[in-house]
Amino acid sequence: MTTTREPQPATASAAEAPDSQTVSTGRLTRITQHPLFVVTTALIVLFVGFTVVNGPTFIGVPNIRNMLLAGSIILLLAIGITYVIVTAGFDLSVGSVLVFSGVLSVVAMRAVGAEGWPAALLGLVVALAAGAALGAINGALVAYADLNAIIVTLGTLGAALGLAQVVTGGQDLNDVPPVMADFGVDRVLGVPLVVVVAALVALIAGIVLRSTAFGRHTYAIGSNKEAAVRAGIPVKRHLTTVYLISGLLAGLAGWLSLAVYGTTNIAGHSLDALSGATAALLGGASLFGGIGTVAGTVIGNAIPVVLASGLVIAGLQSFWQQAVTGVVLIGAVYLDRIRRLRRTVRRPKR
Hints:
Blueprint: H1 12-16, H2 20-33, H3 35-54, H4 56-59, H5 61-86, H6 94-111, H7 116-143, H8 149-168, H9 178-185, E1 187-188, E2 191-192, H10 193-211, H11 213-223, H12 225-230, H13 235-261, H14 272-282, H15 294-313, H16 320-345
Antiparallel strand pairs: 1-2
Helix pairs in contact: 3-15, 5-10, 5-13, 5-14, 5-15, 6-7, 6-8, 6-13, 7-8, 7-13, 9-13, 10-11, 11-13, 14-15, 14-16, 15-16
């Protein structure tokens, strides 16, 4: 008796195997939706647009140098804020910490005569120490006292700014050593030294966040704090360190700001925290934690700087910078929400 074999159905893997065109389309979609691609494209469009509108003035060497200098100070703050946001926290105090650190730096340099590199280096140490101390206080209150990060850093914002005004009597201090002022204008191959310092800090911070155990622990805490505790990560100590780093970078920014502008400029840093947060969020960091890169922050930081410079050269008052910063920040938060919704609803096809 002859047995007739029934045809076997195609295997699921063969039936459902996507063709090369589908794979390419999916890969292209992921690339075009990646935060770095989006923010880089937006930056290029802005730069080209302002170049067309403002002409040679916008792309001239003096304006490019001014944008780099302005962006470098904010970038240091934005890097610290990026670390904090990755842990699902927030730091509103960096602008006031910058001011307070700069004020104490000038006071220390004035006490030793404010001359030469010994005085300037003393001012740097004092600025870093002041920033780190305020950052550590923020971190301890958030991690060990379990207080809300926004409330804590909002309180530090007011306290640091108030103390700076108490120390100075509400007046800006201008006693900056000549060598420090020279550092603020010196260049390497045409690039300001301050920009070089900011770039080196960004490079180191990016490597630490991306390629070290400290960075992995930072992402783990932001993704799931309880799981990080169960995994043996010292969450409270780590959070304190992250806020300390944010304060330390704000202290460095305070010293560099003195070198560039020659004054404490107490009233000139009210929007620094918002600008730094905008840079981090535009660069792909999520307010819900666990996501963010220093590379994205570097590119995101350039957008408000280019916007402000382009609008001023176009003839708008400098006060528009505040409005632009606010609008861009709202847009960055909205983009973060859209990205989160996409990650939530995205499911593999069956």
